Model the fold of this input.
Amino acid sequence: MSLQLDFPAVLERWPNFLGGAALTLELAAFATVFGALFGTLAAVGRGSRNSLIASACKVYVEAIRNTPLLVQIFLVYFGLASLGLKFSAFTVAVAALTINVGAYTAEIMRAGFEAIPRGQIEAAEGLALSRLQVYWHIILLPAIEKVYPALTSQFVLLMLASSVCSQISAEELTAVANYIQSDTYRAFETYIIVAVLYVILSLVMRAGFWGLGLVLFPRRRQLGTPL
Amino acid sequence: MGGHLNINHLMFLGQGALWTIALSVIAPIGGGIVGFVIALARISPLKSVRIASGVYVQLIQGTPLLVILFLGYFGLAAIGLKVSSLTAAGASLTLYVAAYLGEIWRGCIQSVPKPQWEAAEGLALSRTQRMMKVILPQAIRIATPPTVGFMVQIVKNTSLASVVGFVELMRSGQIVNNSLFEPFAIYAIIAVTYFAMCYPLSLFSQKLERRMGRGRSNLAPA
Done:
């Protein structure tokens, strides 16, 4: 057993590592924003009175939550190609991650909707708020506030899961690592550095969401509820 | 291009599916044993043990499984051990699953009502007796639904073992695809197969959760 590590040989590629980390964050940011919107729509759709929409949303959520992301990415990648549509690997990665995180977001949001006391909705209806107003002020915003911690940890998991996009040659952090290790033959050192970078990225994201939570939900801060 | 999907291809995919199941059994067993130790370490009376296990959990939960797999695969080779891709994948998944299960189980142990701990202490049970006879039997009940739910994650995550060359369902699909080049059809079959493995587990976990919910509301003190 002789373990010889040579970090300097790998660390001199730091611009590539940083570029990969930046792209990983970019992927995560796009997928988070689109996925949050898409997932919220799916959650609303699941509670729809139209049974067709409701069951379509349910099928979507269950299909995504019970298949691996890797398979989903390949299906989107080759599916779009077989339709004759050509997109960059980055676009495909954002699309696949959006579809994926959308399903998890939908499930979390649904839990949030269910946690809204029935009496509040009745009270709002009694005050003659329109359906849209009830949805926005009484259901959606308080629900988001309730599930904010669960949502944000899902988005951090999404950032980590975006590493799988390296398999369709999106040039994010893991893809950069694969490239550097095949160039330097220093696989162990490379992946240690990348692991450290991912840990830093996830800490940065958590801190960011925590700060955002303080700004978005001042009520929570006043009540002193831990995020 | 390279012919059509025939029974041999399907047999090959079936074999891959069996390896996926094998990995999905190995990972929670290994991860469960290590995870149990992690869960106990996280609530240890020794501060250093708590901190060390907390750091372990944070590190693993802050790293993608894909990178952990590469680290296991290349890391074991770097210290001079010759390992098969099954060993590398099994070891990496064990480390990964342990961090998550440890954290889930810690939560379950801590959610056993406080008076139970106090009553056990009041009966002069030692720490080990308290754990084994009072806390753990109750914690296991609470832990069952989330653990079954996490099994779904494990089955899905074994697909990543394909990147270190382990021929499970995903990798066998890629191999078949390389000869046929019908990616959409093949990956659709793979997706359906994963779904068939995961969905029953999901349903079972939901059912357990509902049953728990009922049991708990009956037990809950006013």
User: Anything to note?
Assistant: Residues 31 and 95 of chain B are 6 Å apart (CA to CA). Chain B touches chain A at residues 58-59, 61-68, 70-71, 74-75, 77-81, 152, 156-157, 159-160, 162-163, 170, 183-184, 187-188, 190-191, 194-195, 198-199, 202 (CB under 8 Å). Confidence is low (pLDDT under 50) at residues 217-222 of chain B. Chain B is about 80% helix and 0% strand.
